[in-house]
Design goal:
This protein is α/β, with parallel strands linked by helices and 244 residues long. It has a single domain (3-243), classed as Spore Coat Polysaccharide Biosynthesis Protein SpsA, Chain A, CATH 3.90.550. It contains eight helices and eleven strands. It has helices at 29-40, 52-60, 75-85, 103-114, 179-187, 192-197, 201-206, 226-243; strands spanning 3-8, 23-24, 27-28, 44-49, 64-67, 90-94, 121-127, 140-143, 149-153, 169-178, 211-215. The strands form two sheets. Strands 1, 4, 5, 6, 7, 8, 9, 10 and 11 form a nine-stranded mixed β-sheet that branches. A two-stranded antiparallel ribbon has the order 2-3. Strand 8 and strand 9 form a beta hairpin. Helix 1 (29-40) packs across helix 4 and helix 3 packs across helix 5 (179-187). The longest helix has 18 residues, at 226-243. The protein is globular and about 55 Å long.
Length: 244
């Protein structure tokens, strides 16, 4: 079964313009993500971008990159454009602002579909720390007894009317999809829950696509701001120092 890992990346971030190419210990951020995806060893890896600068940077470290439209409202729409051009059995969405993503988490997400042909979409979670419960930037997920997502929210679900008897699950921004689900997504209008929570995975669920979840290791930090990029530099420098 073939697997294509797609890394959506664009220069036009509101809070951090040009962040895919920000320097992290001598490498552009997108290269750290690309190398983690390659290390996951589950399939071909491509960067999807509307920006020629990113295409050129990827050529500099021998990464495959495809030029996509500028006007995609979400990263999933960008991946759907790639799916329309490149056929594979499974597509894995690895966010371009996750330079610390563990390759094992990418592999765990892909395996949900590679090992189970009946599954249309999969994603991963880790344990949510108590100081993250009220952070709207941290997405939570609740699952059913079979491991499928029941709902994603920026609220700390489930609501603790009684003492919690299970850990809160923190959603990690990795997704695996069948080609049919991606192409269908691109034809659906944004759904009410998606708009309310600003979570595009809810569009799949509102249109009947079940999302199988599995536990995986979380990355220490995604990069949304220059300050977070500086913190990632510190973490990477510590890792390099440990290896050396």
């Amino acid at each position: 079964m073939s697997c294509l890992i797609v890394i959506p990346a664009r220069m036009g971030s509101t809070r951090f313009p040009g962040k895919p190419l920000c320097d992290l210990l001598g490498k552009p951020m997108v290269r750290w993500v690309y190398e983690a995806a390659v290390d996951a060893a589950v399939g071909r890896v491509v960067v999807a971008t509307p920006d020629p600068e990113i295409i050129q940077a990827c050529r500099g470290f021998s990464a495959e990159a495809v030029l996509t439209r500028y006007d995609h409202p979400t990263g999933t729409d960008r991946i759907a454009e790639v799916a329309a051009q490149i056929e594979a059995d499974v597509y894995v969405n690895v966010q371009g602002d996750e330079p610390l993503i563990p390759p094992s988490s990418i592999a765990a997400c892909a395996s949900l579909l590679l090992d189970r042909p009946e599954v249309l979409m999969g994603s991963v979670f880790c344990r949510c720390e108590s100081d993250e419960y009220d952070q709207a930037s941290v997405v939570k997920v609740v699952t059913d007894a079979s491991g499928y997502a029941l709902y994603f929210s920026r609220y700390a679900i489930p609501f603790p009317r009684n003492d919690r008897v299970a850990p809160v699950k923190k959603h990690l921004g990795l997704y695996a999809y069948r080609r049919s689900a991606l192409l269908d997504f691109a034809g659906w209008t944004p759904s009410p829950l998606e708009v309310a929570e600003s979570l595009e995975q809810l569009r799949f669920m509102e249109n009947g696509v079940r999302i199988l979840m599995t536990e995986a290791a979380g990355a220490e930090l995604a990069v949304d701001t220059p300050e977070q990029a500086e913190e990632v530099r510190r973490i990477l420098a510590e890792r390099v120092g440990t290896i050396m």
